[in-house]
Amino acid sequence: MCTQSADWFMQLQNQICTALENADGKAKFKEDNWTREEGGGGKTRVIQNGNILEKGGVNFSEVWGKLPAFMAGRESVLETDLFYATGISIVLHPKSPMQPIIHMNTRYFETSSGKHWFGGGIDLTPHYINPDNARFFHTELKKVCDQFSTAYYPKFKNWADDYFFIPHRNETRGIGGIFFDNLSETADYSKQQRFNFVQAVGSAFVPIYIAILENNKSLAFGSREEQWQKLRRGRYVEFNLVYDKGTRFGLETNGRIESILMSLPPQANWEYAHVPEAGSAEQSTQSLLVKGFDWAS
Predict the structure, then answer these.
(1) 33, 93, 185, 217: which is deepest, by most CB within 10 A?
(2) Greatest CA separation found in the chain?
(3) In this predicted model, what pLDDT tens digit does every residue of 255-292 receive, in sequence order?
């Protein structure tokens, strides 16, 4: 499964980069190949200063070696285990405040003691929440999940609400999506079925995000919206640096620092005790950054 997973994640990276370059119409991805001293490496691809995408990355990695200390005792793994991990990680920061940030990560992990699992997630962080886009995003994710189990979407949607949450702000990062982890072989699901689900999630990325970009491309914005975009990007930075497990895994396994931090926006801002104006679009968005909102019904 190691080779099969890695080959597919590399293929997905190629497909997504080609689709995003075509959609942007200007910028091209720059690729950096890197190796990890303890084992493995990856391909970091970053796009910047495009017509649509201000900054983004589509990264592939395949690493192995001694299990990180912070994972010992977790996920039923042994302190003496060796690990293998491969996956793809994507974060895109669009230029327009009217276009949403998107993130996706899908991965495969196994240990020398025979444990294995898939994980991942996809979530949307609009600077301004458009209910039509939110419903479309969640409905499409539900369609993907329902192909494999009608229990997947509600479970993984709630998991995303809890995961993509900023406790010190008491708000969600965006409108959520789906998040899953520890998907291993069980009596109900084979290893191949779990992999098929991860593949379906990965394959859904391009059609979903390109459709949202197309829907929002003509929306006007000015300095007010750009200022709000920087404030929301600041919250994105807070989540990624304080809570994101993928960022922590990369930092604690001696990953390539530029590849790990490619998820951060090119510019962000923090304003002391900012409160959105009553009745504004900013206040409306702020009011929707809560757990449990049912966008798919």
Answers:
(1) 93
(2) 57
(3) 788 888 999 999 999 999 999 999 999 999 999 999 99
103 carries an active-site annotation: yes
3 state DSSP class of 144: helix
Our CA dihedral for 227, 229, 230, 232, rounded to 10 degrees, sits at 130
At residue 16, what are phi and psi to the nearest 5 degrees?
-70, -40
- Say if residues 20 and 92 touch (Cβ distance below 8 Å): yes
The answer to whether 49 and 61 are in contact (CB under 8 A) is no
Distance in angstroms (rounded) separating the CA atoms of residues 11 and 185: 24
Question: For residue 255, is it left (φ>0), alpha (ψ between -120 and 50) or beta?
Answer: beta
- CA separation for the pair 187, 124 (Å, rounded): 33
Catalytic residue among 103, 116, 127, 138: 103
The tally of CA atoms less than 13 A away on the side-chain side of residue 79 is: 2
Q: What was the pLDDT predicted at 259?
A: 87
- Give the whole-angstrom CA distance, residue 282 versus residue 104: 25
Strands 165-166 and 53-66: unpaired
Residue stretches of the chain with pLDDT short of 50: none
The CA distance from 27 to 209, in Å, is 17
d(CA 286, CA 4): 42
Distance CA 149, CA 154 (A): 10
Tokens linked to 276: 């959105």
Pick the closest to residue 98 from 288, 285, 248, 294 (CA basis). 285
The kind and range of the H/E element at 75 are none
The helix/strand/coil state of 16 is helix
